[in-house]
Amino acid sequence: MTQEQAAVNQLRTVLSQTLSPDAAVRRSAERHLDQAKKQPGHPLHVLRIVASSDVADASVRQAAAVHFKNIVKKGWDEDAEHGTDGIVISSADRRTIKSHLVELMCTVPPQIQAQCSESISLVAKVDFPSKWDNLLPELIQKFNSPDPNIVSGVLVTINAILRRFRYVQRSDDLYRDILYVLERLQAPLLTLFKTTGKAVDALANDPAQLKPRFASLRSVCRIFYSLNWQDLPEYFEDHMAEWMEEFAKYLNYRNPALEDEDEETEPSPVDVLQSAIVENLNLYANKDEEPFLPFLPNFTTLVWNRLMALSSFPKHDTLATTSIRFLSSLVGKLMHKSLFQDPATLREIIVKIVIPNIMIREADEERFEDDPQEFILGDMEGSDTESRRKVSQELLRAMCRQFEAETTSICSEHVGTMLAEFSADPAGKWTAKDAAIHLVL
């Protein structure tokens, strides 16, 4: 046995001990790891355990993957203000890690894949693209994998890497990095979105095969969001009709095989994808992108219809709030006034969207009973949380910017009706009074 193999075996034993139910054994193993991570070559020993398929206990590989991720998180950026916690990763080890990490991510089980994906994004945060220029081509090459779980994992990684393009101030360095990514990713991304869609059509009755593909579609949409956040790239403008055709397809998509009627909390794969699509539409609507304007009437109808079909269960909260925000971004702007100026349309928005989403639900009552303070904080104006009630109130305010008289008249009518319901049955209809109050706030 070589000295290196002996070190790996010892490390495997220590990692196993970190999972011990005996607190003393765990603490001893953790102290050992804390010292070992400061030794050159240690990260590669950890990766050998992650990659080893002969480790009988999968939990040891999982522990190794988490340990490696923490090493990268604390020790990769040598210029970090907080320092590297004494972790030493030599230049040779860094090159070896970067040359094997993507392939490793694509060969390990899903739980370990998630840790490897996060490790890649942590390294990329420091080195990409200037010190890791082959990362993106290597990830894109995996788009051709026949394994949908590998494709999904790769897309999750790309999404994590590109999130930094959002919510940051424009700069020459930022735009140089965005251009670098666009030149390599924009065409393969659209191709993957369309080919995955064809696979979805062919596998309509196979939920096990559909779920990773819907996860991929959702990740593509989040990558789309990152690439379009700063400006509308030329390629996306030239191919907008193709993107919008796919978006419209999935807003119309229904598949009982992916729905659980008994589920009240967790959104379905279709709901999650649709939320990401509406987020993209909202991005374009807020930017008033001229090439997007011809598609607006159709998407307004599609989002409206989807919103009308949503249940009041928490599983639909994200899709509901995202869809209501999309309508708010349109109804408050003069340039889109013609889409909403029919009095019947305004009444339908208030009656079928605003009021149902302002009403207290059974799930809200349960949240209040579990944690009254948290519920009140979440319901307060200015809270970071985004509730159905809050976005519905924002929709009303947007309506008042263009249709103040009509909106006020319709709301006054329904406030009177709800207060009358409360007066007739205060104990049973207290939610009507609560809704009336929030309708005029």
From TrEMBL:
PROSITE patterns according to UniProt: IMPORTIN_B_NT
Pfam family, one: IBN_N
SMART domains listed in its UniProt record: IBN_N
Compartment(s) of residence: Cytoplasm; Nucleus
Biological process terms in GO annotation: protein export from nucleus; protein import into nucleus
Keywords associated with the record: Cytoplasm, Nucleus, Protein transport, Transport
Gene Ontology cellular component annotations, sorted alphabetically: cytosol; nuclear envelope
GO MF terms, alphabetically ordered: nuclear export signal receptor activity; small GTPase binding
Domain named Importin N-terminal: residues: 29-107
Protein name per Swiss-Prot or TrEMBL: Importin N-terminal domain-containing protein
